[in-house]
Amino acid sequence: MSTFLIGLSCRECGASYPADARSVCEACFGPLEAQYDLDGVRRAMTAQSVAAGPPSLWRYAPLLPASFEHRVDLGDGFTPLTRAERLGAELGLRALYLKDETRNPTHSFKDRVVSVALTRARELGFDTVACASTGNLAHAVAAHAAAAGLRAVILVPAGLEEGKLAATAAYGATLIEVDGTYDDANRLSSEVADESGWGFVNVSLRPYYVEGSKTIAFETAEQLGWRLPDHVVVPVASGALLTRVARGFGELAEVGLVEPRPVTVSGAQAAGCGPVAEAFARGDEEIHPVRCPETIVRSLAIGDPADGVYALREVRASGGSMVGVSDDDVIEAVALLARTEGVFTETAGGVTVAALARLVERGAIDPDETVVAYVTGMGLKTLEAFAGRFVPAARISPKVQAVAEVVPW
Ligand SMILES: Cc1ncc(COP(=O)(O)O)c(C=O)c1O
Ligand SMILES: [Zn+2]
């Protein structure tokens, strides 16, 4: 169950580096990515060996960039893939599945990236971990750092949802609000990373961090009976999740765990901060950063996405689309998902479901395709966004007649 990581390499020029705390190529400033001995993985990793692993993302340890023995695992990942018959019927899809990431230990898919990044941070000898976050990463880093006995320092843009702030501070992390946007907090974190020597999970440890995302693709394939879906819909902030979902499907085919077949990858953003969706609509290869995000979808409000260009390329190459949806559509989609499937998602999940509905309307998804929508976070974390929308039907005195007046029988 050990890792087959052999080093890092530059996505742009291919230069090789040792697997230490670095994320940018010295020659061309391209992003560095984990490289594996895939022949070794092919021999070590079978459907049986995976099934014998733990019920967490660590069942895929040979394709993770940190070792199973040192894992920081709160039971991350291995979330249910549920057949969404009632939502599918509403939307006109006959084989729709939801990957329910609300079930993660801190209720978002960010537990995946943090479990991997903190495992690597411990292996590399860091005693302090840090991040810039739109909220969910903060919560996940704080919880995993607490469990691993690491100090955590977390930078967030001021004004995030109360639930995410409280949940982060509760674990004893030092939570710092930064006046400005996520991009301001992120820029600051790059500067602090250079000076402090802390392990910034989404800066200096980024090549390891992003690898956690691909486990959502591994699980999708395993839970479909080691088969790839036809079309997936992925919410996009930095673009890391979307690009690693695609990479994850590709790696499974390379190591022989699934039959290779094309998977169409579509991305979803809020229109009020949708730089990748805007570039897609313009037919552009470049991303124009959004300086002032205006959306209730705080978790996806990254104006200058690190992996935006790669996400855009991935979507185009796979024949998918990038969709930007309005805040009103997000809230309606949250309500639709809750009342059809019993899953209460945060705003980011509303973006995904609203984008899915749009893709079906446009005919971009065939009704018989096997479609997977990634519901990446939990609704209790963004209650402010739903203020006035999900409320009691009435307040009554404790009398039978009063109930009958609200709901006649
Ligand atoms: C709930 C949720 N979904 C999706 C994303 C998008 O992730 P990425 O930054 O990898 O694109 C985020 C990022 O913060 C998130 O919090
Ligand atoms: Zn390079």
Based on CA inertia axes, which overall geometry fits?
A: globular
Helix count? 15
Q: Approximately how much beta-strand content do the residues carry? A: 15-25%
The largest beta-sheet arranges its strands as 4-5-13-10-11-12
Q: How many strands, which pairing sense, and closed or not: the largest β-sheet?
A: 6 strands, mixed
Order of helices and strands: EEEHHEHEHEHEHEHEHHEHEHHEHHEH
Bound ions, cofactors and other small molecules, one mention each: pyridoxal-5'-phosphate, zinc ion
Give the class-level CATH name of the domain at 81-107 and 211-386.
Alpha Beta
CATH architecture call of the domain at 81-107 and 211-386 = 3-Layer(aba) Sandwich
Stretches where pLDDT falls below 50 for ≥5 residues? Answer: none
- Distance between termini? 59 Å
SS elements, strand count = 13
What percent of residues adopt helix (DSSP H or I)?
25-40%
Average residue pLDDT: 97
Question: Structural class of the secondary elements?
Answer: alpha/beta
Report what the structure shows:
- With 409 residues, the protein is α/β, with parallel strands linked by helices.
- The protein has a domain of 203 residues: 3-Layer(aba) Sandwich (Rossmann fold).
- Helices cover 37% and strands 15% of the residues.
- The chain has 15 helices and 13 strands.
- The strands form three sheets. A six-stranded mixed beta sheet has the order 4-5-13-10-11-12, sandwiched between helices.
- α4 packs across α5 and α10 crosses α12.
- The protein is globular and about 70 Å long.
- The model has no long low-confidence stretch (mean pLDDT 97).
- The structure holds pyridoxal-5'-phosphate (PLP) and zinc ion (ZN).
- The site of zinc ion has 8 residues, from loops.
- Pyridoxal-5'-phosphate binds next to α5 and α10.
